[in-house]
Amino acid sequence: TWQVGAVAAGLAVAILVGLLNGFIIAYFGVSPILATLGTMIACKGLAIGLTRGNVLSGFPDPIVAIGNGTFLGVPLAFLLFIVLCVFVSVVLRRSSFGQKVYLVGANEKAALFSGIHVKRVLLMTYALSGALAGCGGLVMMARFNSANAS
Questions:
Q1: For the whole model, what pTM was predicted?
Q2: Which of 2, 40, 67, 149 could form a disulfide with 47 if both were Cys (CB 3.0 to 4.6 A apart)?
Q3: Domain ranges in the chain?
């Protein structure tokens, strides 16, 4: 249905913003805090422009269920949280990408000299971060049945 497409589009935008952050940080050498604050302000301005500052509300029941529904008495938002925690844990502990993330985080120069493509790791890390932030935004939007630019 169209709801799945809308959720997928929202997550795709979140991943693109994460990639933009990673690109700015990896290729321009901008401090991560400045890059992420800058893109946050730009995205907020774009959101205000697109919505004209209005609150969007009245989402369909399948979307609202993500934030307010339950499965066997357990909130769906909590189940999503557990699934994402397991996914990230497996990625960080059991994949070569996860090992590279730890190495780049520990010492970026040593990782570079070890043959790790540091810029690619940063891009993928920020893309993952954007995806997780998008999931968090989706749950908040569904929980409150509304969305605004802030």
A1: 0.91
A2: 149
A3: 2-147
